[in-house]
Design a protein that fits this description.
This protein has helices at residues 2-13, 15-53, 74-77, 79-93, 108-115, 128-139, 144-147, 164-167, 174-187, 216-221, 234-243, 277-289, 344-356, 412-423; strands at residues 65-70, 97-102, 121-126, 151-156, 190-199, 206-208, 211-215, 251-258, 261-262, 306-312, 314-318, 330-331, 333-338, 366-370, 372-376, 384-387, 390-393, 397-409. It is of the alpha+beta class and 424 residues long. Strands 6-5-18-15-8-10 form a 6-stranded antiparallel β-sheet, covered by helices on one side. It has a 6-stranded antiparallel β-sheet with strand order 14-13-11-7-16-17.
């Protein structure tokens, strides 16, 4: 008993050290508990993946091939470790023939896609930039019509993974988010996503699944990392210092666009069976003896292009992938032209919102729906365009919507939510 009393006296006399030690003990315990929970999530995911791997397949059926494009530089160099600990074991246990292709420099994925052989699925492990590179390389191929039908999986490992909000449920735990995304690929549920084809005057077209931005918010957002020493104030500081250069910040351009197009019916997933031989012979004989009908020339309706001059603080073109409606009757992309008459305080406040949702279209903006558009910039235009968070030189561009161009793996629960919201 005397020892216990002596110990309490010591703790009371050294209360500062006691407080620090208690805080460190609580923090260490919480960290160890978090690591234990992450290991439980990995184990449960591996057990579910092993169920797929234990399935018996006929000898005549080949093992499915999966090609993974991994960007080790994503998430500040942590992407490789995240993939190997959380996603790679699940893919290997599932029985897939997995080939991992690691990119060494920016733009390499585009070149590798040109050399890629046949595969059953493509898996992108990285962030928005990796997604943009892979789909650009895929759709630049000469045989893109066939390769664009290959289902694509996305494992969110990057600092910005906008597409994951569409494909998978939100999760604060990074390990759970990665394992859920990997398991969704194995389950095989897919949804069609729109793609933007962005063609400049110099290079080959670039393809995006999120959108394009040009304006002051994009320029200020690119400089946020320079003010890292200001901590939580770095976003406001970047937008504040941006207002000191010139105000009001106006971006003038000429916009020509086409309206929405009706959505064609979806192609059947399964091909209709071939008719019997006698039916095929009958049809051929009927075509042979029947008189050839005269072809009446169809009247070509001229496209209804609309033109306007714009002066804006930021211009953006986005797909509907962030708010996907699987039962919509028209195909279009959203064009947002934000007013250039806001105050500096409103600009700084809205800049913080734009960092959370880069393609936010605030109240008072001029919103358009278009299937194609041409943005003509003045010759002395400075700054850059952001295409799926990747920076490109500012130049005149033509943006064309490719509706339902690619199939992406998604969570079955997320797809069910989309279908329910569309039917309401």
């Amino acid at each position: 008993m005397a020892r216990v009393v002596k110990m309490f006296h010591t703790l009371r006399n050294h209360w500062k050290k006691t407080t620090v030690g208690a805080c460190l003990l609580v923090w260490g315990g919480n960290w160890l508990y978090g690591k234990h929970c992450d290991n439980l999530l990995r184990r449960a995911a591996c057990q579910e993946a092993q169920v797929f791997g234990n399935q018996i397949i006929p000898s005549s059926v080949q093992i499915k091939k999966a090609t993974v494009f991994l960007n080790p530089a994503a998430c500040k160099g942590k992407a490789r470790n995240l993939f190997e600990k959380n996603a790679a074991p699940i893919l290997h246990l599932s029985g897939l023939d997995v080939t991992v292709v690691k990119t060494d420099y920016e733009g390499q994925a585009k070149k590798l896609l040109e050399l890629m052989e046949n595969t059953d699925m493509i898996i992108i492990a990285g962030g928005d930039g990796t997604v943009q590179e892979v789909i650009t390389g895929l759709l630049r191929r000469a045989d893109e019509a066939a390769f664009s039908k290959i289902a694509i999986g996305f494992i969110p490992l990057g600092k910005t993974s906008t597409l994951s909000h569409t494909l998978y449920p939100e999760s604060a735990n990074q390990v759970q988010h990665i394992t859920d995304a990997t398991l969704s690929i194995l389950r095989g549920e897919t949804i069609p996503l729109d793609v933007l084809q962005i063609k400049g005057s110099k290079d080959q077209p670039v393809f995006a699944v999120t959108g394009l931005r040009w304006g002051s918010y994009r320029d200020a957002g690119a400089k946020v990392s320079k003010y890292w020493y200001l901590g939580p104030l770095k976003i406001k500081a970047a937008h504040f210092f941006n207002t000191l250069k010139e105000w009001p910040q106006k971006h003038s351009a000429s916009l020509t666009y086409l309206g929405p197009t009706p959505r064609p019916p979806e192609e059947p997933e399964q091909k209709t069976p071939r008719p019997p031989l006698y039916i095929r012979l009958y049809k051929r004989l009927a075509l042979y003896w029947a008189p050839v009908p005269k072809e009446t020339p169809k009247e070509v309706t001229p496209e209804a292009w609309q033109k306007m001059q714009l002066s804006t603080i930021e211009f953006s073109v986005t797909t509907q992938n962030s708010h996907l409606d699987l039962k919509r009757t028209e195909d279009f992309m959203n064009i947002c032209i934000e007013p250039d008459t806001i105050s500096k305080g409103e600009y700084i406040k809205r800049g913080s919102q734009k960092m959370q949702d880069p393609h936010l279209c605030p109240e008072g903006s001029h919103c358009l729906q278009a299937s194609r558009c041409i943005l003509q910039l003045p010759e002395d235009t400075e700054g850059s365009l952001a295409i799926d968070s990747e920076e490109y030189e500012a130049m005149p561009v033509e943006v064309k919507l490719l509706p339902r161009k690619l199939q992406f793996f998604c969570s079955a629960r997320k797809k069910e939510q989309m279908l329910q919201s569309a039917s309401e």
